[in-house]
Amino acid sequence: MEEDYITRRLNNLRKALKNRGIDGFLISNPINCRYLSGFTGTSVYLLITMEEAFLITDFRYREQAVEEAPCFSLVSLQGSLDSTLENFLKKKRLKKIAFEHNYLTVYWYETLKNKLSGLELVPLHQVVEDLRTIKDIKEIKLIKEAAHITENSFKKILPYLKPGVREEDVVLELDYIIKKEGARKASFDFIVASGKRSSLPHGVASKKKIEHGDMVVIDFGIYYNGYCSDMTRTVAMSHAGNRERKLYRLVLEAQKRALGGIKEGLSGEEADELARQVIFKDGYGDNFGHGLGHGVGLEVHEEPRLAPRSKIILKNGMISTVEPGIYFSGWGGIRIEDMVLIGENGCELLTGDLKEELIVL
Ligand SMILES: [Mn+2]
Question: Rounded to the nearest whole angstrom, what is the distance from the C-alpha of residue 202 to the centroid of ligand 1?
Fold first, then answer.
């Protein structure tokens, strides 16, 4: 049941908050609010104490909050956050409140500090984000469904890719396809980068037309019930030369090496190194200028980062992308990206279709 997941998440949070000597935790990041409460609205704060959980929202979201967040007591936002909190904290006798220092604005911090005399504010870093790195069964199910829709959408966009079609038109069509397939919307501005533009790892689609001989990097993802997907394929238009084929095989080999080695216990940099070694050995180390991957969940980029100097330790239940690439300014680039679920002895591929051979359209 939905409520069991919420109860478990709240328990995990309380465990993380224990022994910090605080009376409660004010959560202001709407994504963290959604994770902990189930509430999908955007005007929301949570105040979580060791015994109780409150959801603060305004009149517009009242009904929705009652329905979506049954584990929470509703507090009506009346006037501003500071006056609502003032009354509430006094009533509950809460004096030492933690806040998310990477989400509460300086304006709100100062307002609360100045107006609520006697209130002590304690900054906390990434507490909910850390919990979010380990996906529960319900999240894994949703992300798998999102990954499935993403793969199906890629298959359906292929017939549309033709010489003379603009990158932007591919994005328009793909946006339509993902929605037809069940996505809520795109999880980021799709990257469709063809020919020389494919050397831009984040080359958002332009008016450039796809031409014969172009390599085309398509990097896209969806939102599905709040969860994201992220996948990249590189295809060749009309024909592919030896260099294109050779480099594609190298990127694929690097990805496979990583997919074969990623498991619980590795650090983010050790995972990155698996693929990087393969590309480095062939002399293209400098052309792989970004990290190997990133976590995917309620946000399309979250922890764990698989990258040089990433010390995070991979754990069972984390979901990450594995996306090696090589780029040559003035020539183009190749990237292959899939999503994996990390397990104790290896990782499970959530996307993976249509990449074993370079697709020549
Ligand atoms: Mn990605």
Answer: 10
Distance, CA 332 to ligand 1 centroid (Å)? 18
Where are the chain's structural domains? 2-132, 137-360
pLDDT, tens digit, 9 for 90 and up, residues 85-131:
888 888 888 889 999 999 988 998 998 888 888 889 999 999 999 99
Q: How far is the CA of 9 from the centre of ligand 1 (A)?
A: 26
Nearest to 335 by CA among 247, 242, 238, 221: 247
Architecture of the CATH domain 2-132: 3-Layer(aba) Sandwich (3.40)
- 163-197 tens-digit pLDDT: 999 999 999 999 999 999 999 999 999 999 999 99
For ion ligand 1, residues whose CB falls within 5 Å: 230, 321
Find the 321 Cα to ligand 1 centroid distance in Å. Answer: 6
CA 161 – ligand 1 centroid, Å:
22
CATH 3.40.50.300 for the 137-360 domain, yes or no? no
Distance from the alpha carbon of residue 7 to the mean position of ligand 1, in angstroms? 31
Distance 234 CA to ligand 1 centre (A): 14
For residue 146, report the distance from its CA to the centre of ligand 1, in Å: 14
pTM over 0.85? The answer is: yes
